[in-house]
Amino acid sequence: MSDACLIAEVAVAAPLKKTLSYLVPPELAVAARIGVRLRVPLGRRRAVGFLLELSRGSGEGLKAIAEVLDDEPLFPPALIPLFRRAAGYYLHPLGQVIATALPAGLSGRGSAPPILRETLYAPTEDESEPPGRRQRQILDCIRQAKEVSLTELRSRFDAPHAPLKRLLELGLISARQQERLRDPFLSWPLQPETPPEPAPAQLRVLEQLRPLLEQGGFRSALLHGVTGSGKTEVYLRAIETVLERGRQALVLVPEIALTPQLVGRFRNRFTGRAKISVLHSGLSDGERYDAWRNVARGEADIVIGARSAIFAPMPEPGLIIVDEEHETSYKQSEGFRYNARDLALLRGQQQGVPVLLGSATPALPSYRRALDGEALLLHLPGRAAGQPLPEVELIDMTATPFRTLLSDPLAGALEANLQRGEQSLVLLNRRGFAPYLLCADCGQDFRCPNCEISLTYHRGRLLLRCHYCDYQLPPPESCPRCGGSQLDPEGAGTERLELELKERFPEARLARMDRDTTTARGAHRRFMERMLAGEIDILVGTQMIAKGHDFPGVTLVGVVNADATLNFPDFRAGERTFALLSQVAGRAGRGTLPGRVLIQTYAPEHYALQHAASHDYAGFYRQELALRRELGYPPYGFLANLVLSGNDPQRVERAARELAGRLLPLPPGAELLGPVPCLLAKLRGKARMQILLKAAQRPALRRALDRFEQLSRPVPNGVALAVDVDPVDMF
DNA sequence: AGCACGCCGACT
DNA sequence: GTCGGCGTGCTC
Ligand SMILES: [Zn+2]
Ligand SMILES: [Zn+2]
């Protein structure tokens, strides 16, 4: 046995079950370090792989690495066990796990992003006023800020170009070019702060956390506190402790909450003392790569990011925080279907790092872990400022005429709030004008040819759009079936709600916030600023207004249709509804005013609504846990969903039947449900079937999955198979 | 996943 | 007789 050759263990970014060994040619021996990307021969192709391990051996029968693609490692060796465990847990090929974990855009060579230039505007000595209103607004903004970037102006004003040109011509402002700030998150103005004195409840929680933070080692804690209870202050102080020990902190927040304001709170607290890196989707590929390498070099003390930041390559993390840990956006819904919250716990375990989960409405598995003593349960009762909780009322819609969008009590409350000059939020968890467009004569509807579900009518853009793929078409003039000329929108989305409010309260200043109005860069912030400035009386929106945005002036919250989430055919419907209502309720109240929440529903007796209305968290969890236990659902049961898809529905169907047949009989303790068509039986043109594996204990599910993994070719050609372990939805 | 190999039906 | 369907195996 010769040890003459250097051998590399490589995870190839292809769906292979095992890693492969390659010869490291002498000329690449220095460059081939653990954690770099490689180009390797694979069959008669070439593929990208990740170097996981180096060893010595004879090298017999091995092919040689063709190229080393990075001059420094993209991840530390300490992350490799996490990748391996994650690949095993989620039944996903290791190479693809790593490819998903690393920042996007690494397919090419690691090159520096182009330097971007940016125009900055400053006021001149000329203090006269320009003629136009828009010109004055923009000039005021520039005069106030002394110097403002074009990006900034674009985010505050629509189409600022023409007024700016005019102002330049008038000599009221000057312009200069500068290298653009790489990261939009860093352009939020800094306001260094003196940390507030923690409230007694916060001190108590911090005291309980102290041993975890100071001793290090894996422990987990669940911080349960309503919106405004001061969880962030606890995070900031916990991070402080960790930084003092020379370790780094990793903070995960849901994508929707990863805003400049949030990052600003961290920057304000730690400015000059700690370096903060933000990993977010708004960065260009080059910028993200830069940020990533900074973290890998240990140049970031605090890393803030959404889901994929769980893989941030910090050398010595001392704390992992997962804020709003119940959020389903932590679960990746395609490809490598990991849950960042669960991987946070796994990473903490592997690297001996405490993990702090925070939520106003913890996910049931997290709550159970805390009740079972696996995680330390910490409470922040009430709101930090001693504000009372809002008064929540359920409005029984069965008593109102069919199709009523706004009940009298809600309309009245909105009216009264308008009179008082106070702000209101109205939530309707459905965008567009109406979910259906129907022919008045023959009842014909319009469906997506790719997904076979109803197209949503968008009145603003005058389109029928599929919310599951990118299909859209302009609404026809007449019915394609009977030629009838009357096509009626049926049901209501945020656009229709906005219209109805406009008709009812013509004097009110309305705005609508949903995915259709927030795609532009800086749009979230613009809504935020308009709300803060009191320029909006009623803000209409989807769950977006309940999550990630704190509108401090709101005293009334209306929920148009609480049943929309409640009637979802998913065992988590109750939990989701409770969480959404609790969160949106948390938006009501200002100063010492408690705020009011009105929830319209056809099922006012439902326990999720009842508990949400009485702020009875313990009661809800008690009841929901009992229900889950009875039905064998998480956290008292464990699920994995096998989703088969393909162009030919019959093939998919047959493949699903055959797969189920080959899986049976399952090991004891596990059961197989299905195969059945997925809820979306067709999606993006592909037919879909699912097989659900269920077990009362995790090991039994694991054995069932082992059995599945041993199948040589689970599905035939032309059928794709995705495995979803711990699914959060069953589409 | 790709891309080979290999074995049977129905087409120039 | 072959062209091509697709089930099966392999990738260091
Ligand atoms: Zn018709
Ligand atoms: Zn579609």
Helix percentage range: 25-40%
Bound molecules: zinc ion
Which fold name is given in CATH as the topology of the largest domain?
A: Rossmann fold
**Which class best fits the helix and strand makeup?**
alpha/beta
| Count of separate structural domains | 5
What does the oligomeric state look like here? single chain
For the secondary structure, the number of strands is 30
The CATH architecture classification of the largest domain is: 3-Layer(aba) Sandwich
Order of strands in the sheet with the most strands?
11-12-10-13-14-9-15
Distance between the termini: 53 Å
Which parts are unreliable, with pLDDT below 50 for 5 consecutive residues or more? 107-115
Name the CATH superfamily assignment of the largest domain.
Answer: P-loop containing nucleotide triphosphate hydrolases
Taking the sheet with the most strands, its summary is: 7 strands, parallel
Characterize this entry briefly:
With 731 residues, the chain is an alpha/beta fold.
Give your account of this protein's structure.
- This protein has 731 residues and is α/β, with parallel strands linked by helices.
- The protein is 30% helix and 24% strand.
- It is built from 20 helices and 30 strands.
- The chain has a 7-stranded parallel sheet, with helices on both faces. A 6-stranded parallel sheet has the order 16-26-25-17-24-23, with helices on both faces. A 5-stranded antiparallel sheet has the order 2-1-4-3-5.
- The longest helix is centred in the N-terminal third of the chain and has 16 residues, at 200-215.
- The relative contact order is 0.08.
- The chain binds zinc ion (2 copies).
- Residues 448, 450-451, 466, 468-469, 471 line the site of one zinc ion.
- It binds a DNA duplex (12 and 12 nucleotides) through β1, β2 and β3.
- It catalyses: ATP + H2O = ADP + phosphate + H(+); Couples ATP hydrolysis with the unwinding of duplex DNA by translocating in the 3'-5' direction.
- Component of the replication restart primosome.
